[in-house]
Amino acid sequence: MVEIDENAFVYPMPMTLVGTVVEGRVNFMAVGWASRVNYRPPMIAVALGDHHTNRGIHETGEFSVNVPGRDLLEATDYCGLVSGSRVDKSDVFQVFRGDLANAPMIAECPLAMECRLAEHLELPSNEIFVGLIEGAYCKEECMTDGRPDIRRIEPFTLTMPDNNYWLVGEHAGKAWSSGKGYR
User: Fold this and answer.
1) Smallest Cα–Cα separation from 22: which of 56, 59, 51?
2) Helix or strand holding residue 59 (H, E)
3) Residue 129: partners with Cβ closer than 8 Å, 6 or more residues away
4) For residues 147 and 138, what is the distance between their CA atoms, to the nearest angstrom?
5) Are strands 62-67 and 16-22 parallel, antiparallel or unpaired?
6) Is the pLDDT at 11 greater than 90, yes or no?
C-alpha cells in the first residue's frame, strides 16, 4: 500500500439529481454524494456544498433524489455546471410530482424518490440532508420482476478527485450469499 492524500473518496459514487423548489421555481442539482442511510423507515442522505438547492430544501422541507440513466449524462452534468441562482433549470427535464408539492421529480429518470426532510447536519464545508422517502417511482421498462433493474436503468457513477463518470459494470456476485462458502 502507498499512502495517498487523505481527501480520498469511496468508489463508486452514484450520480443523482436532487430536486426542490427554490423561490417558487423548480431546480435540479447534480449530486454524487448520495446514499441510503436507513432501512425502516426508508431514508436517503445527500451531502451538498453551499448551493442554491440547499435554500429550497430549508424553505420547503422537501426534495427529490432522481437516478439518471446514461442517456441523461450531459443534462445531469449541465445541472452541476450552472447554479439555479443564475440559470432557470426548470425546463431541463419533464417534471412530475407525487404527494409532496416541493419535491419535483424527473420523468426521464428511470428511478425517482420524493423525500421529506427528516434530519439536517452542518459540517465544515457541506450540509447533510437526510430525507424520509415518502414515495418511489420507477419506469416500468426499467424493472424486472417488479423491481428496479440496474442493467435497464443504466446508472452512472462519479469518481473524485479525477472527476470522471463511469458506467456500472458486470454482475459480480449475489449479496448475502456469495460468501457462504468462504470458510
Assistant:
1) 56
2) helix 52-60
3) 45, 46, 47, 48, 54, 57, 63, 117, 119, 120
4) 8
5) antiparallel
6) no
Strand, helix or coil for residue 150: helix
Q: What is the pTM of this model?
A: 0.95
Give the contacts of 96 (CB within 8 A, at least 6 positions apart): 104, 105, 106, 107, 112, 137
Contact in structure between 152 and 141 (CB atoms under 8 Å): yes
| DSSP label of 72 | G
H helices, E strands: number in the chain:
3, 14
State which H helix or E strand residue 154 sits in. none
Question: How many whole angstroms separate alpha carbon 105 and alpha carbon 89?
Answer: 13
Beta bridge partners of 16: 31
**Angle at Cα 28 formed by Cα 86 and Cα 70, nearest 5°?**
125
Query: Is 98 a residue whose pLDDT tops 90?
Result: yes
